[in-house]
Prior knowledge:
The protein has helices spanning about 5-10, 35-40, 40-45, 50-70, 90-95, 100-115, 125-135, 140-145, 150-165, 175-185, 190-195, 205, 220-230, 245-255, 265-275; strands at about 20-25, 30-35, 145-150, 170, 200, 210, 215, 240-245, 260. The chain is of the alpha/beta class. Helix 14 (about 245-255) links the parallel strand 8 (about 240-245) and strand 9 (about 260).
Amino acid sequence: MSQAIQGAQRSPEKEFKPKPYAIFFDLGYVLIEWDRAAQMQPVAAYGMSAADCSRLTTRMLHLLEKSGGQQSPEPGSPLALWGECGVMPHPVCLWLAGKKTGVDLVQEAHAYCASCTGADHDPEELAILRQVACCLYDPIFNLQFIRPISDGIALLYECAAARGNDNLYLLSNYSRDQFILLEQEARFAGIFDAIPKRNRVVSGFVGTVDDEGVVHGIKPYRSIYEHVFATYDLAPEQCIFIDDQEENIRGARALGMHGIWLKDHDYGAVRAELEKLGVLRPVQSQAPIAGEISRPPEAGV
């Protein structure tokens, strides 16, 4: 081969070296989701639509607030929200912190409905709300309507290939009773095989309540992020956090974490942010990553 031809040859592309971040994934609506239509089927018998079910969820939050009190957030922390349905009442915060069970919430809602007597209360609406409480908080009933999100799990495994499983973490507001059941379900093995047990930060196991009755250890309160830093000896700037709730991202960013908001299920936008941070190689690049692992199981398998 002539010297000219040799000189024209392309040199091999350099191996991509991901930046050394710890990557934290939320669970609900990032890696798993609920089939809300099926979950709320018991109230469909009353002629409820999907919009009615959302309204009833908000109504349930208000009911529990009347029964058990308003949320008292940590000083300087944003309020914890239940998606777009409103502010979490104190009983729901206690449930997410592992201080109540889903059955406790169902019983509390039923007891409050039973106390609502007189002409000001519609018996049918009270019957519907009792059903809603079971649909939302009964852990065994709830479990059957949860399914993996294939796009989220694919992103999880791509991050595992880039950074290794030891640098993947779970950071979730999830009740103790429901999370124990979730871990035992084979259809979620793709998630729990990727994230080591020691790296799972779940509010139901780390939550506390102080002498004033204030809940700690749930997102977006600063205490759960500070728990992460102390437990894993990480500086905030070493951490990337992916969550579908904007207020949780704001809480993380306020402490110096790299927060990526998964808005409208746009995993492509999340991946683009991970590229900017140097965790994932650009899509057009074909450079290998050392230690790539096999693809995740298909969602639902």
